[in-house]
Amino acid sequence: MAMMRLRREDPRIVGAFRLHRRLGAGGMGVVYLGSDRRGQRVALKVIRPDLAEDQEFRSRFAREVSAARRIRGGCTARLVAADLDADRPWFATQYVPGPSLHDRVAEEGPLRAADVAAIGAALSEGLVAVHEAGVVHRDLKPSNILLSPKGPRIIDFGIAWATGASTLTHVGTAVGSPGFLAPEQVRGAAVTPATDVFSLGATLAYAAMADSPFGHGSSEVMLYRVVHEEPQLHGVPDALAPLVRACLAKDPEERPSTLQLSMRLKEIAAREAQGLPATRPPAQRERTEHSTGAGVRPTERYTEGGTQGRSAQGPAPRTGGSRTGGSRTSGSRTNGRQAAPQSRPNGRPAPSSRPGGRTTSTGLRPANPRLLRQRLFVFVVVTLVVALGIAAAQALQG
């Protein structure tokens, strides 16, 4: 996490903590790196002076502290101390070393499928504890996830709210970050644990693509896409795409639960780490087409974990245009999904994928390592049994 020197206007001591560096600043206040007399390092958030007299902001700050106290588990930074009655309210949590997921992806590019699945599994398990405490984060996004040596940590519960609460603080104003808000948040409907599942799906898509699944643009444009358009997941690995798409379902009832996500992502992480089975590129996903009122539209069906038989529509396709550099070039839309070109570095087309399995350049299917190990094990066992039988027979004859 980037640190900056204290400014002239920054306090040097808050409560029992001495401040050393600035860790960042947000809409509510400034976060400092501090330490107590025992040397314990903390991340200490102090509300901005101009907001200290605003009762609405004080209430929001109090909600963050209340949420931090209610949540149990290793998914969040542990609350160390707080003073909500001070002239400038503050609270301190355990300092979490490590960059945010946003910074990691910005510096290193898209993460491997195994890493995305492992991070997603830990976050899903953490959200289980958050939701069991009756809290919905409502602003889960890459910059609110810190990648510590002990695993990812969820931070910034500043707009966290009890399950079932509305997402509007003022009429027509949604609280959260465009591109990671769930459709029900944009509409001002009640939030539920499924709201965080949508944000987690958008966050995992960002980690896999280094881009938002809803592109870039003004807040109004981003909110419109979240509600009315399908996510763009062309760069998401094939092993993760169906699960991510299920998380981004417009209807909260169609999204998987955090427990289902945790179990499924753990399986994907283990399989991807071992390299078995190898996944196909996103452009080669099997799709089924069904007729709609606007024509033929490709869909993908997620049939794993606890969401078997649940269909999720593919992204709204675009031809003649693309999203680059934060904007989309002009072009017409069609009802077919445009597949990414498939080619090898030497210019030759990549071999096509067949339903029966992968094939090599010679047209033969590669050997299955697991099957080879099983056959070798059977051969060794049979050989040992025969050898023991012969030795026993010779001993009886002697």
UniProtKB/TrEMBL annotation:
Residues covered by the Protein kinase domain: 17-265
Q: What is this protein called?
A: Serine/threonine-protein kinase
Q: Does the keyword Cell cycle apply?
A: no
Q: Read off the lineage from the record.
A: Bacteria, Bacillati, Actinomycetota, Actinomycetes, Kitasatosporales
Region called Disordered, residue ranges? 273-367
Mark out the compositionally biased spans (Polar residues).
335-345
Residues passing through the membrane, by range: 376-396
Q: Which SUPFAM superfamilies match?
A: Protein kinase-like (PK-like)
Q: Which GO terms describe its molecular function?
A: protein serine/threonine kinase activity
Per its UniProt entry, which superkingdom is the organism in? Answer: Bacteria
Annotated positions binding ATP: K45
The UniProt entry, under CDD domains, shows:
STKc_PknB_like
